[in-house]
Amino acid sequence: MKTGNYRYVWKAIRYYRKQGGEIVNTPSIIIGLEDMTTKEVFPHPISHFLYKKYHRNSGSINYELNVAQIIVPFLNFILDQVKCELSEYTEIKGLEDLRESHANAFLQYCVDEKSNKNKTLEMKENYLSKFYNYLWDEKVLKHKPKFKLVSVRKGKEVRKVQKIDFTYKKTDETLLRERIKRKDIVPQNHDSNENRIFIRLQYIREILYVAKHETPDIAFGVALQIFGGLRKGEVVNLTRAALKSQNGQKFGVEGLVVLVRDRQNELFKRFIDVSTMQVKSPRDQSCLIDPILNYLYKHHMEVVLKKIKKPKHPNALFYDTEGNPMSADTYDKRFLKLKNTYLGMLLGTQGRYQDYLDFSQTKWRSHIGRGVFTNMCLDVGFNEKQTAVLRGDRSTQSMESYFDIITATYNIRKALSLLSPDQSANVADLNMPTNHRMWKEVQEYGAGLRT
């Protein structure tokens, strides 16, 4: 195994391949060796593992990236141990000398130094097992790993796979003190309240109001994540023509359908690494309707886009400060600004300290919008399968999927009355921060949109 001044790295690339008579510019991930002095990267033959096991079958560069982000640290862990001249690693001259004990040592390191949860460790076990299996099948390893057959369930299918018989000591999760990941915008003190539908709308309107003033370039995108369940990669892939208002009304007042498609080749040719800008599930996405969504749609088209003086792409929906279609990384940074501004507003407002603690002591990024959308769908009566279809998750049988799309889309229309902010009287007696100025402005602002 080559040591010296080298480290294993993963790298996003593009290559051309023929598909159905067309030449397609295809993103992929490779593993390479980086010269730590010159920063030059040399492709490593082990990239074939990603290509053979994942690239040809997954259809998603994110899948390849997930695997690479486990295999690369493992290989660098081995490099570090070899450099330290530890007795268990002196025999390692290359990949052919790897044993299952080295994978066990890496996973123990992930427990002791990284505090990985058992769910993360199980994922690493699966990928490392496939890696060792690949090395054995390709006749690279000198010593056959000890595998055991385990049952793995994927949907309704149960199949047997070979997995290394790992012996490391797993994490005692009772000792972990990791912040909880938020999946909704409703604070914990209201979580069990029967009026949480209306409480949620209050908090949605507040954070979108802050977004409109502090990060107007993504405010409509955040609204689409909340009311349409879009992922950030799906938001930045949108074009202006992707928005379809229903019933001849402007700005989605009587319904908004978003044509979610992968438009990387149209919008992001300037990037090699597009792993964060993929569209997992192309679909026609129906949005739940709220006046603030309509308002932000109108504001985005008539105010935000008009400020882009020299757009590099005339049909993009979201732009960075240089006029390029906004990347997912830029969207993330803008959302982080929104989050920090919102936390600062809560901290600086009398009567909001408990809200500040609730939002600051939990983990959340823009993906919370998808969680909010899911909870709204479930709270207004969609079943789990219909909600999965609306979220753009991979569904089950094709006829069941078709039926669910029809019924779920119909139920969106029924749900609008349940989501109506006219029901605000239902939260009048709750301990909500109705006395502070911004909160009142949000309520008056929403009421004005209905007139």
Question: Which SSEs are present, and which pair or pack?
Answer:
Blueprint lengths: L5 E14 L2 E14 L5 E3 L3 H12 L2 H23 L16 H13 L5 H20 L9 E8 L2 E8 L31 H19 L1 H13 L3 H5 L6 E3 L10 E5 L3 H4 L15 E4 L4 H14 L23 H20 L5 H8 L7 H12 L4 H8 L6 H21 L18 H13 L2
Antiparallel strand pairs: 1-2, 2-3, 4-5, 6-7, 7-8
Helix pairs in contact: 1-2, 3-4, 5-6, 5-10, 5-15, 6-9, 6-12, 10-11, 12-13, 13-14
Structure description:
45% of the residues lie in helices and 13% in strands. It has 451 residues and is α+β, with helices and mostly antiparallel strands. The protein has 2 domains: 170 residues, no CATH class; 262 residues, hpI Integrase, Chain A. It is globular. The N and C termini lie far apart (71 Å). The longest helix has 23 residues.
Number of helices: 15
Main structural class: alpha+beta
Query: Which CATH architecture of the largest domain is right?
Result: Orthogonal Bundle
Number of domains: 2
Question: Radius of gyration in whole Å, from Cα?
Answer: 25 Å
Strand content: 5-15%
- Please give the share of residues in helix: 40-55%
